[in-house]
Structures are given as structure tokens and as C-alpha cells.
Amino acid sequence: MKLLIHMKIKRLLVSTNREKYPILIGSKLILNLKKIIANESINFMKCLIIVDKNVPRKKVNIIKKKLNKRETYLHFIKANEKNKNQWTTNKILEILLKRNFSREDILISVGGGITGDIAGYAASIFKRGLKFINIPTTLLAQVDSSIGGKTGVNTKHGKNLIGSFYQPKLVISDTDFLNTLPKRETICGYGEILKHSIISNKKFFQFLNNNFEKILKFKSPYIEKAIYESCKIKKKVVEKDEKEKNIRKILNFGHTFAHAYEASLNFSRKLNHGEAVILGITTALKFSRLNNYLSSNEFEIIIKHIESFGLPNNIKKYFFLKDVNKIISFMMNDKKNTSNKINLILLKKIGKPLMNVNFDKKKIKMFLNRELAN
How are beta strands 46-52 and 71-77 bridged, if at all? Predict the structure, then answer.
């Protein structure tokens, strides 16, 4: 069935065991924020808006204005991996407590994935559950972290090791926010779109391959189509496995390597999350090929896409041989591991991931040593 690209405003309904909530995708959605919230029957008296400082103030003012008849507060955070911690969460909790928020009030996140993760985590633990709306402003957040209810913060031991599963009441993905993104942040979001196509839908991968430049320039209807299809793939997986007990693990394709890369660099700006994901995807593809899970033909198709569009693909740009032990150490701390082996999500072919493939750390170490030595 050919993928069509007619689209203005799309609505996806995510239905898990604990919550049903819509994802709205389109342009100029925040201009209709008051009507959207009313249409979704979300009622509240007080509102705390958690805002990434990088979000244009004009957009923030529009959002606040649309809620002007309510008791509304703003709290700005510097959203980066180093600030994605319990201290930042506690500052949000203090405001909620000081302003005497109840469980019938609401917390709104306006920012990228880090902002959404922190705000969602705070909402999940405040009085055991505060209403939560996510307005993701980056491509990465719109196609990935805003869907599925994963929240959390980092510690010195690794990424997202403290957190909860907590579904929002509503996700509003306004594509107008994307126009202010630098190219590097756009590439980050594209990494998750690419991942979704690789693990689920070859036709979608071909759509990306044919329309890469239009998508990265946010041309309509290509960008809306890319976001919608990506969200639809993640929605289906999350609905089957909300708490990552089984099939949801496939969404971690490339992420075991990616999270270890980020942590090994101490979450520095040298390698941000989306770039790490693309680098992790490339590494997982090479490891899949090395172990004869993935055919050379399918491997070359994906690698050609990654290389021809200049996406991150060489770990030697970021690491040296001396870094391998550190990378392995963080991989051993990955949440998917249930033994002294490292659990990986690998690929058999486009649309056919392999779950729960366990390897001794020595084998992965030899592989990484070879990649960095060549």
C-alpha cells in the first residue's frame, strides 16, 4: 500500500491500560490551545508551565495568553542532560507545593525531550499524579519522547535510571516550533524517525530515502507525514507493551550503544542525544552484520542512506581505544540487562528487529576495539 502524503492536522489516539490520550500534529496549534484543551475535556484551575529557555519567548507568551483566565505560572529551565536530574525536579515540586496545587490542576511542558522527561517525572510523583500536557517543540521530542509515557532523570551512574511510566492527558505537536531549530537539532529528531522506519516499515524507510531533504527543510506535507508515520509506529508498540516488558524493547534499537556513548562523554554537547542515536544505530547495524543476522544487501541500503546524507556514522570522531572500557561499563548498566551479559536489539532486515540478544561483554569489547582501530 503506497504511503500518501495528504495532511493538515492529524490526530492519533494512544490507548494504554492506564490512559487514553490524543496526539495532535499540525501547524499553528498553540493559537487554538484554549479550544483544543476544552475539546479534549481537560479541566483544571491552576497551571504550571515548564519551559525550556531555548523556546522563543513569543511562543511562550502566546501559550500563556491562551490560558489567561486561569491561575498560570511559568518556570524556565536550562534543558540539557547535565540539568536533567533530581535537583531540577525538586525545584518544580517546590513551586507546586508552594502554590498549593492539587491533583486536579495541571502541569504543561513546553520544550524538547529533556523538558518533557523532567516535567512528566515531576507530574508523576507530585501527590502521586498531577495532570500533564506535553507540547514538544523539537523534532526529536515530537516523534519520540512525547509518546509512550517514559519520564525520568539522569544520575552519575547513567541515563534515565530514575523515572516512571506516566502518560500525559494530551500531546500537541505544533510544527511551527520546528522553524527555529538549528540543523543539528533537526538531525537529532531525524535519527528517531529513521529508527522507527528501520524497525517497522520498509515503505516508510523508502519514503524517507526519497524525501530526506524536503523533510529536513520542514516542507509540507512531507514533514507532517514523517512525524505522523513515526508517531504511529511508536503508538502501536506502546499500546502493546506500555512498560517495556516485551515488544517495546525494539524501540531501543541503537540505544544501548547510544546511551553508553553519551554517558562516556559525560553528556557533553560534543555528542547530543539524537546524534548518539544515529551513531548507535550505525553501530548496531554493523554488529548485526558481523553476527550474520543482517544481510549485506539490507545493511548497505541503510548505511548508504546514513552516509549519503551526512548523518553521524563514525565513532572514531568521538572516541579512542582507551574509551572502550568506559563504554562497556555503561552498557553493562543498561536497564534491559537481566544478567551479566549485555542485552541488545539488533536487526534481521528492515522491519524485522531482533529482541533480547545477549552477548558477553568481551565480544562487544573486541568489536568496539576493532571499530576504533580500523
Answer: parallel
Reduced to 3 states (helix: H, G, I; strand: E, B; else coil), residue 110 is strand
Q: Counting beta carbons within 10 angstroms of the beta carbon of residue 200, is it exposed (0 to 12), middle (13 to 18) or buried (19 or more)?
A: buried
- What fold is seen in the domain 183-373? Dehydroquinate synthase-like, alpha domain (1.20.1090)
How far is the C-alpha of 72 from the C-alpha of 95, rounded, in Å? Answer: 12
Nearest to 148 by CA among 49, 26, 274, 16: 16
Q: What is the pLDDT of residues 31-75, one digit of tens each?
A: 999 999 999 999 999 999 999 999 999 999 999 999 877 799 999
Domain chopping of the chain, boundaries: 10-180, 183-373
For 306-318, what is each residue's pLDDT tens digit? 998 889 899 999 9
What is the arithmetic mean of pLDDT over 168-192? 92
Active site residues: 128, 150, 192, 234, 244, 248, 252, 255, 259, 273
Q: Are 1 and 223 in contact (CB under 8 A)?
A: no
Q: Is 76 exposed, middle or buried (0-12, 13-18, 19+ CB in 10 A)?
A: middle
> What pLDDT, on the 0 to 100 scale, is given for residue 346?
97
Residue 365 is predicted with a pLDDT of: 96
> Under DSSP, is residue 338 helix (H, G, I), strand (E, B) or coil?
coil
C-alpha cell, 43: 479541566
* CA dihedral sign, ordered 147, 149, 302, 369: positive
d(CA 62, CA 66): 6
Q: pTM to 2 decimals?
A: 0.87
10-180: in CATH 3.40.50.790: no
**Rounded (5°) CA angle 307-224-146:** 85
